[in-house]
Amino acid sequence: MKKTTEKINARTVITAHANADFDALAAMVAASKLYPEAVLIFPGSQETNLRNFFIESTTYLFNFKAFKDIEPDSVELLVVVDTRQKSRIPHVRPVLDNPNLRVHLYDHHPDSDEDLTAEKVVVRTWGSTTTILVHEIMERGLALNQEEATLLGIGIYEDTGSFGFNTTTPEDFTAAGFLKSQGMDIEVITDLLSHELSAEQVTYLGELFKNAKTYDIHGVDVVITEMSTDKFVPDFALLIHKFMDMEKIKVVFALGRMADRIHVVARSKNPDVNVGRICASMGGGGHEAAASVTVKDRTLAEVRDDLFALFYSQINPQIVVDNLMSRPPVVIEDDKCMSDAVELMTRYGLKDVPVVAKDGMRCVGIISHVTADKAISHHLGDVPLSEYMTRKFETVETKTDLYRVMEIVLSNRQRMLPVEDNGELVGVITRTDLVNMLIEEPARIPDSLMPDSRRERNIASQVKNRLPQRMIDLLKEAGELADQLGCEAYAVGGFVRDILLGRPNLDLDLVVEGDGIDFAKKFASRVGGRVKAHSKFKTAVVILDDDQRVDVATARLEYYEYPAALPTVELSSIKMDLYRRDFTVNALALRINPGRYGQLVDFFGAERDIRNKTIRVLHSLSFVEDPTRILRAIRFERRFDFQIGGQTMRLIKNALSLKLFSKLSGTRVMHELQLIMNEEDPLSCMLRMQELGIMEAIHPLLKLTQERIQILTELVKVHNWYKLLYLEPKIVPWKLYILGMTAGVKRDQTTQVTKRLHFTPKEEREFLQLRDMIGEALMKLMGWKEGKSKLSRLYSILHPIPVEGILFLMARSRKEYIRRNISQYLARLRSMAVDVNGKDLMDMGIKPGPVFGQILDKLMVAKIDGRVETREDQLKLAKRLNKELSEDPADTTEA
């Protein structure tokens, strides 16, 4: 009787596409590190060396099973790597019918119409899927053994052509570097991926050489070759690699008739030829450098004809800059001023003009009409062009091809492209020139450079993984309301930025392309909240029952009537609304309407700047319009460990040279300082401000001397220590740090600082009193000696002082025993209370009055000094004190 094998219950299953390559196999093993309880289902492969490698080693090292060995109904989570297409995972199709099945996808291929719907989708256009998973492993701090690291390395090496394909990215190199640190054996990888060909394979390779023909497709050399046999040829893709390497071929399409099927393997090292798109048009798949397709019921000639039809429609003609550029260029010399630029551009109807060195035609910058106009409106017409021109720009030569032009103009969003020969400006290409040419043939634009597709990446999975459900519900509720009202709504700014950074941020800002105040009222009625509207700015705040606040704004364009002015508001679109933001990293929007929920709107390269850790302003006059943005730039730079970009730093220095801080109100400066002092590391912000001369620009008395820096350093330490104690009252950080910033400033001079920062009369009075109390306490502390002075004396010195002043004393003291005892006061004595209250005193027959306070104070002193431990002892002392005070009311000595 045949024995029935019991099937395995597998709650989590990992698999890849059928006919797996090394990247698929390696990605499965990498995924198993992220899902350690998962069962791996190998989908099979037609590649001989891969199949042998798998059979000989991998099954013994990892938890691989055959699909027939598991119970399909037990699968709750399906993890698919190196594909998202349903048709490419037929071996696990029964699992897809499971109710409530969750799906996670990791892939590096382009989107397709049959992509699976999943709760988690991680897609990166990197050289391999294994790279994506290795970065996840790195982020989680997981370790690999040598066998794992080597296998993962094989996946990356294969799919990047040992880092020789144009699709290879910096992330692939980073992943390989990490794997090497984990023990990856490169010799094993080299041996595996460079097997000697068998005699039969050499015969097939000779047939491919014999049948190879080169065709000129729009100026691009494309090689087509073919072979024919009645049986399947393993490692066909390997033969094509050998063929390309031996002939130094850039683009090849190899057709192999094997029995009743035609196998097409395509490889491209030319960015103008996207083989993935061509093969996808025939029902196959891959990416722009490597792809394949299998065709049934067609002849070699028919498949070849289909390819030629696709070639002529999808391969870009080799148009070069010389055919596109405008010449001679209209230029302006770098010693001219902003008003000269406006006059020149108005005369010729230009949006931008190249700036050249006055001694020749060397291009040194670009100035835009918008920037020059704004400069005139701010009365900066006499300022030299060199102050506000864009210095960071790309140039091309006359023989540069169309793809590079599109990459700069469309992808990098440089509206005007100077053309140089031998370092001399000979012409320009404008965005209009390029668009006019592409209108006639839009298919020339590669998908990777389409502006819409780049800025509309969907990050719904990141939103789901990084936000609490309550916040997701609010986003979807707002999106549904916007749909009902017939308008578009977006989450914007730092909220979106921090989703990409993976940082917590529950400060939700919404922008509506419609009436923001009306939207806020309707939204509040749906979610249960109240509205505070600001008609002047067309904004509103929805305050929910749990004190969650949702800011709602009308899509608007802000403009400034003069430098450092408050903004005037006009209705506008989301693009213009984002353009008014301070920095690119904050100029992000997230669509929340149901049809396009989760799509990221990025007009200004925010994702790129986040990736490069760069703080960059949106336009040259940003700091002229609002100098407080300088303080924000420093705050974000230090918070995120970014760097202020070179052009942005130059503009900061320009704004400081114009003394724009003097035009700012103290209220606005103080608001930004308070935000800085609420940061985790306020000192690094203050040091950066000092380095740039901002402290003195706010007020000369705020210059950070070495002594003040030392005090501020200690203040940060004691502040962090106090926060860890979770004591009341909470610190008001600005009071603490402005004490440090004004250390050593005389009392009458301190009022100059408080008035510059626009303290209210109450704030000024309390701050000056606090400084006075600190000064008196410092004198008294000098006379307090550990072991000789009573602890109650320390208590009486410190107790009247607000907690900010006590922390300042702790930071300022150079005697360790005083710091130690101040910390004891904060941690224990400050919250200590006697066990006797006013009612107890009344029960003794003591009449309420000043004597109550005197008795309770003396009881506290006695308790601190350890003379009365129990309530009974305190009641006895209270009676005695009452008697003594009654006999001599003027007595105020310690009991």
From TrEMBL:
GO BP: any one term: tRNA processing
The entry's keywords: CBS domain, Magnesium, Metal-binding, Nucleotide-binding, Nucleotidyltransferase, RNA-binding, Transferase, tRNA processing, tRNA-binding
Protein origin, superkingdom: Bacteria
InterPro entries in the cross-refs: CBS_dom, CBS_dom_sf, DDH_dom, DHH_sf, NT_sf, PolA_pol_head_dom, PolyA_RNA-bd, tRNA_nt/polyA_polymerase
Record PROSITE patterns: CBS
Entry GO MF terms: metal ion binding; nucleotide binding; nucleotidyltransferase activity; tRNA binding
Cofactor(s) it depends on: Mg(2+)
Domain CBS span(s) in chain numbering: 325-383, 389-448
Any Pfam family hit: PolyA_pol_RNAbd
Similarity section: Belongs to the tRNA nucleotidyltransferase/poly(A) polymerase family.
Protein name: Polya polymerase
The species this protein was found in: Pseudodesulfovibrio indicus
Lineage: Bacteria, Pseudomonadati, Thermodesulfobacteriota, Desulfovibrionia, Desulfovibrionales
